[in-house]
Amino acid sequence: MHWTGAAAVISALLQASCASRDVFSDPGINVDKWHSATRKANALITQLNITEKAGLLTGNLLNLTCGGIINAIPRVDFPGLCLQDGPAGIRTADLASVFTAGISIGATWDPELIYERGRALGEEFRGKGAHVILGPATGPLGRIPLGGRNWEGFSVDPYLAGIATSATVRGIQDSGVQACTKHYVGNEQETQRTLGLAKGVSVDAISSNIDDRTLHELYIWPFADAVRAGTLSIMCSYNRLNSTYACEDDHTLNGILKEELGFKGYVMSDWFATHSGAKAANAGLDMNMPGPVDQYNFTNSYFGPNLVRAVQSGNVSAERLDDMVRRVLTPYFYLGQDKDYPTIDPSGLFVTLAALSYSPSAFSIPDDTPLPPARDVRADHAALIRNHGAAGTVLLKNTKHTLPLKAPRTIAVFGNDAADLSRGSAVPLGAAYAPPQGVPMGVQVMGGGAGSGRLSYVVSPLEALRARAASSNHSMSIQYVTDNSVVANADFSGIYPFPDVCLVFLKTYAAETIDRTSFEADWNSTAVVNSVASYCPSRKTVVVTHSAGINTMPWADNPNVTAILAAHYPGQEAGNSIVDILFGDVNPSGHLPYTIARNETDYNTEVFNVTDPAQVTDAAAWQSDFTEGLLIDYRHFDANAITPLYEFGFGLSYTIFELTGKVNVRPVHGQRTISVFPPKVKENSPGGNPNLWKTLFAVTVKVRNTGDVAGSAVPQLYLSQPRSTVPAGTPMKVLRGFDKVYLKAGEERNVSFPLMRRDMSFWDVGASDWRLPRGEYIVRVGFSSRDIRMEGTIRV
Ligand SMILES: *[C@@H]1O[C@H](CO)[C@@H](O)[C@H](O)[C@H]1NC(C)=O
Ligand SMILES: *[C@@H]1O[C@H](CO)[C@@H](O)[C@H](O)[C@H]1NC(C)=O
Ligand SMILES: *[C@@H]1O[C@H](CO)[C@@H](O)[C@H](O)[C@H]1NC(C)=O
Ligand SMILES: *[C@@H]1O[C@H](CO)[C@@H](O)[C@H](O)[C@H]1NC(C)=O
Ligand SMILES: *[C@@H]1O[C@H](CO)[C@@H](O)[C@H](O)[C@H]1NC(C)=O
Ligand SMILES: *[C@@H]1O[C@H](CO)[C@@H](O)[C@H](O)[C@H]1NC(C)=O
Ligand SMILES: *[C@@H]1O[C@H](CO)[C@@H](O)[C@H](O)[C@H]1NC(C)=O
Ligand SMILES: *[C@@H]1O[C@H](CO)[C@@H](O)[C@H](O)[C@H]1NC(C)=O
Ligand SMILES: *[C@@H]1O[C@H](CO)[C@@H](O)[C@H](O)[C@H]1NC(C)=O
Ligand SMILES: *[C@@H]1O[C@H](CO)[C@@H](O)[C@H](O)[C@H]1NC(C)=O
Ligand SMILES: *[C@@H]1O[C@H](CO)[C@@H](O)[C@H](O)[C@H]1NC(C)=O
């Protein structure tokens, strides 16, 4: 299927809400097209010599045109591959969009919007001539609440993350760009994420020690969705797994990814995550990025000439070398990137050089040289991003009819997050090198590091509020204090007229390479909220957080804090997205993709940190045992009967939704008895045994909007397996269905949740297979993990 054709089919199928989930369980690879692409790859391979083959598998860091480069081979008309960061927008580019971050789009619980975002992202990468987007990120999953990269992914729940990953991969690849789903696997913290020096001693990366069941049911789960969706590439991660580096781990690369999950594309390393040549190649690594051994020595690579020698000495077989090359070339032909693909936008190079603080003269470029104009790839994406940002905003509290704002005459705005950025697009390499709390002044619309984008503009909350005031003919006035020290110290002198409502904007920064150290929002946030709440004469304080994810909110129960909105990282339209929600132009419909605890001590997982001076030079000290197994986030809160502040799946609306009738369960497997294990197949297709993806039961409920405005509900299905036939450590309930349903006031619709075999099974370690436990399953349907409205049962 040509990519535009596939998109049309998917969007047609998405029209019918009950079909949407099936779309995401269908294989994303067209077998005939794959075979035809493989033939083209094979034909090219026969023309290549061994040096050229190794070159296709080794990045060239000396070429700064893209985030990663595979050199061209002009002799055979192969133009090379351009790889670009990252999951929220094309990073080193001018005139490109900064999209809503992963955690925001995950909070929409809306596969259709998630697909739309992936599609638009892909269009921008294609427009800039990038063949591969280094995304989506679905690892880290978010085991550790303060993980520095959690915001790049979608949710701590593997089912929600899996569907979001699938929708994103499909969107990206339908636009003709290869997705590289990352980071495989167990990359759950940034602290000591990779090999490094401590006092001159080489200290190995953190080892994520994960048992087989947990590996399958949590951390690999969304990657299985990515493979099912047809991801053409997977990035192996920095960390070790049971003390073996992820990029040379035969068990998870060859064993699980390529054999069990039937992945046919290529595995590329994270940047400098390769630590061996022949060993990594034989374990399943196909492409070494960015090429050299490390950032200190650009001339040496574990691949390149080293791979040639390994093949010549027989340490890597010629067949394996060809397999690696075939895996890299087939995706290129599969997407038709050999035909009419846009050239690489040359402006990217100058953006990179500028980010590295090089001036044109450093490259002997005369001052008056006209630089190539950037290709504007933003199209109409601003409108999408505005919608996505609003849709990923979660209304957590709304008392005294505070929201939506009706016609306030005067609004007071507080907090450094409300303002324009004191350093906007000029933040070096997307804020990777900003201080631990990010830039002191300005709205936080994304995190830092490779996952960030480069802002061509940003709409701050103040700017959008002022525009709103202007469009009301200035019948509404805006006053503000954006200096957090002034607010925290309760200096409200001069504010007049007294505000009808007070808005507080808080921000929380997170970035690759560092984990967060504080649960509360940054910049003295609690003092800021408390002082506004005790001052605000109308006793209506609305708190908005722009955040990487989990924050504790010690002020949430303050009766003067009458509304709370978790706006996550909405991207470049941040101000417009939140103003749409505040004034009710958009009815909030986001739901938490994680749990907000009352107290940070309620979480059971934290960063593993070696702080003992005697241990910091111990090369093998970093051992993180995932002893909590499956019990992370809401599963842990359920198992230990801890009441959260706002539970997983929670989110309010300006209207009211109800479930009516009863839970209807219909078997669709068409068998008298269902086998305990999935029937064996000769060869696993992408995603593993295809029988795991077959729907066994369809659960249907009716959802009604009983309020007086239109809005979108997110009915959620939580499944409990039969207690008597599951092993210890099985969560009390897990998310296994959800949908996003738009309903006019008074409207009612049927919602159907397909339960696939994988959804109902657990990973049986002894059998090395997915086992469907016999007995009675409980199906709970509601509007959050703690707001269960109805129950039904399934007997297997
Ligand atoms: C392979 O081909 C390249 C031209 O693309 C040539 O420069 C190189 O010498 C050849 N290497 C071998 C080992 O034949
Ligand atoms: C860098 O790579 C790009 C894309 O393959 C290519 O157009 C350009 O010529 C390369 N530059 C150098 C100096 O090799
Ligand atoms: C780690 O070792 C345990 C125990 O041998 C095994 O069950 C598990 O699959 C291994 N995990 C990884 C990620 O290799
Ligand atoms: C890079 O590595 C090679 C091989 O180990 C070594 O000969 C060379 O001196 C190194 N270069 C630098 C700059 O460290
Ligand atoms: C091949 O592997 C052997 C054993 O690991 C090693 O001693 C040798 O150096 C390797 N040769 C090359 C060329 O990598
Ligand atoms: C603002 O004023 C214009 C011109 O008087 C009028 O057409 C418009 O309806 C007013 N808008 C609002 C929101 O009051
Ligand atoms: C934080 O808030 C406290 C309490 O109001 C205040 O004393 C302190 O000065 C504030 N710190 C900063 C850096 O603004
Ligand atoms: C609530 O607001 C009122 C009026 O500003 C104030 O007197 C009171 O102390 C506030 N309460 C809290 C808990 O902040
Ligand atoms: C959180 O719990 C700890 C330990 O029980 C306690 O010391 C602390 O005061 C609590 N914090 C809050 C904000 O309740
Ligand atoms: C880890 O410990 C170091 C001190 O050794 C500290 O600077 C750092 O903030 C800690 N990291 C986290 C994420 O807590
Ligand atoms: C909803 O399902 C019921 C059966 O449970 C069916 O009678 C009804 O027509 C369906 N409604 C819609 C709008 O599809």
TrEMBL record:
This is Probable beta-glucosidase G. Its main location: secreted. Belongs to the glycosyl hydrolase 3 family. Residues 713-785 form the Fibronectin type III-like domain. It is found in: Secreted. Residues 1-19 form the signal peptide. It catalyses: Hydrolysis of terminal, non-reducing beta-D-glucosyl residues with release of beta-D-glucose. Beta-glucosidases are one of a number of cellulolytic enzymes involved in the degradation of cellulosic biomass. Catalyzes the last step releasing glucose from the inhibitory cellobiose. It comes from the Eukaryota. Keywords: Carbohydrate metabolism, Cellulose degradation, Glycoprotein, Glycosidase, Hydrolase, Polysaccharide degradation, Secreted, Signal. It is an enzyme of class 3 (hydrolase). Its EC number is 3.2.1.21. SMART domains: Fn3_like (SM01217). Pathway: Glycan metabolism; cellulose degradation.
